[in-house]
Amino acid sequence: MAFKKHSVLPGFNLSLGYTLLYLTIIVLLPLSALLLKSSGLTAHAFWAVVTEPRVLASYRVTFGASLLAALINLFSGLLIAWVLVRYSFPAKRFIDALVDLPFALPTAVAGIALATIYAPNGSMGELLAPLGIKVAFTPLGIVLALTFITLPFVVRTVQPVLQDLEVELEEAASSLGATRLQIFWKVILPTLLPALLTGFALAFARAIGEYGSVIFIAGNMPYVSEITPLMIISKLEQYDYLGATAIAVVMLVVSFGLLLLINGLQWWSAKRLGRR
Amino acid sequence: MSRLLAALLTLALATPVLADTTLLNVSYDVMRDFYKDYNPAFAKYYDARFKDKLTIQQSHGGSSKQARAVIDGLEADVVTMNQSTDIDAIVEKGKQINPGWDKKLPNEAAPFSSLQVLIVRKGNPKGIKDWNDLVKPGVQVIVPNPKTSGNGRYTYLAAWGYALKQAGGNDAKARQFVTDVFKNVPVLDAGGRAATTTFMQRQIGDVLVTFENEAEMIAREFGRGGFEVVYPSVSIDADLPVAVVDKVVDKKGTRKAAEEYLKYLWSPEGQEIAAQNYLRPRDAGIAAKYAKQFPPVKLFGVNEFGGLAKAQKVHFDDGGIYDQIAAAIAKK
Predict the structure, then answer these.
(1) Which CATH class is domain A42-272?
(2) Testing the interface with B: which of A60, A239, A240 to mutate, by most B Cβ within 10 A?
(3) What global pTM score does this model have?
(4) Model ipTM?
(5) Closest CA to B29 of B267, B191, B185
(6) Residue B55: beta bridge partners?
(7) For this UniProt entry, which residues form the secretion signal (chain B) (predicted)?
């Protein structure tokens, strides 16, 4: 006597079907077009394009700068989220809204603004120049632009989790004799870890694909401050569609691999915490 | 996908218009000011002669990027570019323009030309007079990226041609010379406009190399007080070609208007508007009238390099001489 199992939530087939259809049209279709196009290259030619020294240098710049920017935002994002959730102070709403600004601003505007401020004759650049620090038109400028662009990710993923975190937990730990450091390491951080990792992954992925803001501040010197998206654009300028797709496929595969890895980590840390 | 996007874009551009005939002119960045003056003048002439009210729409961007949009399906009636290779690309890749477009109009279909000049700071503090001053140590040169910008490619070729024309000049020496010029480049912007911003707004560099007509734009934008134009002893003749997009005009039935639109560029009025925008006219009479603003400069053409298509292949394609130069500079 087998009964058909019914989920508590009805409409599983319908909603899953819709999800798959939607993802196929919005995400998979353009991506498979990309892969299909790159299959016009022989394996040998593909390898030659994606391992050209100048392209290799651009991977280092793009992935290195994105990693740095995501790491910076991992720490500063946590701090900002903490301040916004745990304390109340005047103009808190205003500062909260400020966090989202990098999302709303066209990236080219952000790039031009940063380049203007950090150029040797800009207001910040003037202060840093005597110290021998050059930001605009160096790899440091790329990190700066990417940090700006990806700031909201960590803040916005950590904030709701932090809001749900009951203060009673910390009080209980404290009454059981835990030091402040222990509370942070053993109570707060494990709870926040999945959210932190999600924010980090989002920031990292966004930074890898960023073009508009970086291009104005990078200086675009070959082998030094050329990002991979620029290599794609410069291939397109030569009407080399196949070469451009080849590099795009490499970025896609590497980014997807990294995201998968981070998602795995996040899943593992959530499981360890006993959630689902 | 990009075809769809282009189609949507054209649709968005075209819907609100209720004129008899609409032309779309796809052009490059620094031609904005010229066509702003030329389009109303032509529409007036066309209406008087053919009793047809024209609406002319403009699209501007980097020359190669614009050509790519046309290849991908942007329905341009005419293209007005800064390099014949961009129109050739539409002929070869998109097949929207028939071969032989450069024979259908005079001057190989280039109604006017420009050349590369040196723009220096007021008073010329570094004493820059000619191309060989760009390789001096301590001189910073602002040039857009030859990989992504026609403007940058012309500068590269101008410097190369200058070195060739010196006593005992040969390809090896020219290559060394161009390497030395690019060694002094601190920022490679993606396009001509961005390079202008770097030089004028961020005050980076001692000399900006760009088109002569861009110098006039700088004067209008930033005032005439901040810079000086230096004409080098020799420069490259940059022909700015135009073409009718055959496939589109035959489909839309706008061939007559499009052809008249381009032909009128050679009329005295068209040539005068060009001269007013600091584009060197072909018409001898107009050229004489504006001689004061166009100092005579010894010019060589891209035929020195076997044509633009060959120069692109030898110098600028991936693995070409410019890439080798960039690699050599990065190693130092």
Answers:
(1) mainly alpha
(2) A239
(3) 0.79
(4) 0.70
(5) B191
(6) B22
(7) 1-19
